[in-house]
Design a protein that fits this description.
Helix content of chain B: 25-40%
Structural class of chain A: alpha/beta
Mean pLDDT of chain A: 78
Helix content of chain A: 25-40%
Distance between the termini of chain B: 17 Å
Largest sheet of chain A: 9 strands, mixed
Oligomer: heterodimer
Shape of chain B: globular
Low-confidence stretches of chain B: none
């Protein structure tokens, strides 16, 4: 990670180690030109850490290094280091020199001796290859040959003085007394801890059958450092130290963007979905569809074309894919096109710390924007509460810092506690959105209920919804409340049916009425029409009558005048009205 | 047969450090006493010839290397415990 960091940033006198996390803890690396004591029990990673320091110096800092091997032969060290992908062979001789200084088994010792010979030889070599870094691995082996504590002390002094005079950045490794308490180390080294400028303690312990590796900076003159124990892991490319406290916690990029939960109605309940970069906790008992809900989220993410990682602790990846396919969530095509990476965490052995480091590494490798961990409570089983808690905290911190949307499920133990607040990992406090899945047993049925316990920064529905799984997918159904109880399953269905029947009846009645009204209207219209026709007939009749009357009168007057003419009358009878016949 | 063998020694010292000086004198004493006229000593100062010390894998000084007769043996220290040294050189039988 930090390999790109240039040497001695802003003039600080630090020699970067290239160990992810370690340089952050120490604010840049080991004290430059000074000596660091590295103490640890057997198999605690002393040799690897020191070698990584040298390799990084040789590869990235133009600081050639010398490795003085007192215990293991350099051939074996080189061979072991090959597995980390460090190209020691090409670095060797010019930039990296191994000095085999293992005392031969048949070495006879008589009287006092010292390390001047080695230092003289090393001085020549240092000059020749312009070495800036040096490691004395397992100094205790050679000191054990010295007869008394005073002599040992003298030789440590000699070595220390020599290192300072040469201005080499040095690491001296030594075994600690036992792996139980790494601070108790052999007498001469106890004194050495006071002498050196920096002391680092590596601890490897096993708690409940789970291996834990811890690293602690005990002292660091002239520099601030993280004083707490930091878990570390020996990964594929060397040591990875996990920063226990987010010392350099960058303010997480707060996003207003919403991402779909994969269930449309849940998005609506949440006011549009989860926030990007938020951490979502889904709790529930066994079989409450936690995996399904997280699978829906993963599918939705892939549909948007976002790289996603799905870590399953419970089952094998193919099982998860098959099981989710049965509820209409098709993940296999995204696995095939590389968008989705499924990891069965059963294949990652180790402590919660190891899981965390591994998950982080894999997520970075995959470039995932969405991460599903199903379930995080698996950590709780394999570890003690405190570690699991701290791991979960850091997981959330980390995903926030990276802007990764995190969905964790957590199994609640149905037997021991039935309360919602009994989430074994108290990450519910840290999670942004907490969805609780529950069984509601009612009228001889067990139905899945979903409720949003909290969702920061989001208006969310307060109602319990029924979660329905079918081969077409996951959906939510409204629930009915009756007498203060939420109705689900058959009872909901019955209620729905009753309502449906009532609605149908009402509709039918309305239809009937409309038909009747239609008929009445039609009837009236017909009547209107016939009346109109009648009216027309009457009008015609009336007109006819008028006309016939007129013609009759005309006839009459014409007849009268004709008669007058005929009679020779000289006057017309004015206003003479002829009554109709 | 070892009675006739010629002993070849190489003693690596660190300048005039006290233990180195002691080793030189102890070796001389021992040889004069137990291997009269059949020993050869080469003294290498690691400060002057550090590369040689590196090549010969000398890390502690003083170191005595018995080159001949076979087998090659290494003894570190001032060689103050004569008995131990003689034993290591395969000479204890010679001084019953």
């Amino acid at each position: 990670m930090k390999s790109a960091r240039p040497l001695r940033v802003k003039g600080t006198n630090k020699a970067p180690t290239g160990i992810a996390g370690f340089d952050e803890i120490t604010g840049g690396g080991l004290p430059h030109g000074r000596t660091t004591l590295l103490v640890g029990g057997p198999g605690s990673g002393k040799t690897i850490l020191s070698l990584q320091f040298l390799v990084h110096g040789a590869q990235h800092c133009q600081e050639p290094g010398i490795f003085v091997a007192f215990e293991e032969s350099s051939q074996r060290i080189v061979a072991n280091a090959e597995s980390f992908g460090w190209k020691l062979a090409e670095l060797q001789h010019k930039k990296l020199f191994f000095l085999d200084a293992q005392p031969t088994p048949d070495l006879v010792q008589s009287g006092d001796f010292d390390l001047s010979g080695m230092l003289a030889a090393l001085a020549a070599k240092t000059k020749e290859m312009k070495a800036r870094r040096i490691v004395f691995d397992a100094l205790d082996v050679i000191l054990a040959l010295l007869p008394d504590p005073a002599t040992k002390r003298r030789e440590i002094y000699r070595l220390h003085e020599w290192l300072l005079a040469k201005e080499l950045t040095g690491i001296i490794t030594a075994k600690s007394g036992g792996d139980e308490d790494s601070t108790v180390i052999q007498q001469p080294f106890g004194f050495m801890q006071f002498m050196v400028d920096c002391a680092i303690i590596l601890n490897h312990s096993v708690a409940l059958g789970v291996s834990h590796r811890n690293l602690r900076v005990q002292k660091y003159r002239g520099s601030s450092f993280d004083e707490d124990e930091s878990p570390f892991l020996i990964g594929n490319s060397g040591l990875v130290v996990d920063i226990a406290r987010t010392r350099v916690r960058v303010d997480a990029k707060v996003s207003n963007e919403r991402v779909s939960s994969g269930v449309e109605r849940l998005d609506t309940m949440l006011g549009g979905g989860y926030y990007r970069g938020a951490s979502i906790l889904i709790t529930g008992f066994s079989g409450t569809a936690k995996t399904t809900l997280s699978g829906a989220f993963a599918e939705a993410a892939c549909q948007r074309g976002e790289r996603t990682m799905f870590v399953s602790f419970d089952s094998d990846c193919n099982e998860v894919i098959r099981n989710l396919a049965s509820v209409g969530i098709g993940l296999d095509r995204y696995v095939n096109n590389g968008l989705l990476r499924m990891i069965s965490a059963r294949s990652i052995a180790g402590s919660a710390e190891a899981y965390l480091v591994r998950i982080k590494t894999l997520t970075r490798e995959h470039g995932a924007r969405c991460l599903v961990i199903d379930p995080v409570s698996a950590w709780y089983k394999s570890d003690n509460d405190l570690t699991a808690q701290s791991v979960a905290d850091r997981l959330i911190d980390w995903s926030k810092g990276e802007g990764i949307t995190l969905v964790c499920t957590s199994l609640l133990d149905e037997m021991s506690n039935r309360t919602e607040s009994g989430s074994p990992l108290q990450i519910s406090a840290l999670a942004d959105t907490w969805i609780h899945l529950n069984y509601l047993v009612q009228a001889g049925e067990r139905n899945r209920g979903l409720s949003i316990v909290k969702s920061r920064g989001t208006a969310h529905s307060n109602q319990v919804r029924e979660l329905i799984l079918s081969d077409k997918g996951v959906t939510l159904a409204d629930t009915y409340t009756a007498g203060g109880e939420v109705l689900m399953g058959t009872m909901r269905w019955e209620k729905e049916r009753t309502e449906r029947v009532a609605a149908e009846a009402a509709e039918a009645a309305a239809k009937l009425k409309r038909v009747r009204l239609d008929a009445e209207e039609a009837e009236l219209e017909v009547r209107v029409k016939s009346l109109q026709t009648e009216l027309v007939a009457k009008q015609v009749e009336k007109a006819l009558l008028v006309r016939s009357t007129q013609s009759h009168e005309g006839e009459l007057s014409r007849g009268r005048s004709q008669m007058k003419e005929l009679r020779g009358a000289d006057t017309t009878i004015a206003g003479d009205k002829v009554s109709p016949p | 047969m070892s009675r006739q063998a010629q002993f070849k020694f190489r003693l690596y010292v660190a300048g005039d450090a006290l233990n180195s000086v002691q080793a030189v004198s102890n070796l001389g004493e021992l040889c004069r006493q137990h291997l009269p006229n059949r020993y050869e000593i080469e003294i290498v100062d690691v400060f002057r010839e550090p590369k040689r010390a590196l090549a010969d894998a000398i890390f502690m000084t003083p170191t005595l290397v018995k080159l001949a007769p076979e087998p090659i043996r290494r003894i570190v220290g001032t060689l103050s415990q004569t008995q131990t040294v003689l034993q290591a050189l395969g000479l204890e039988a010679a001084t019953p």
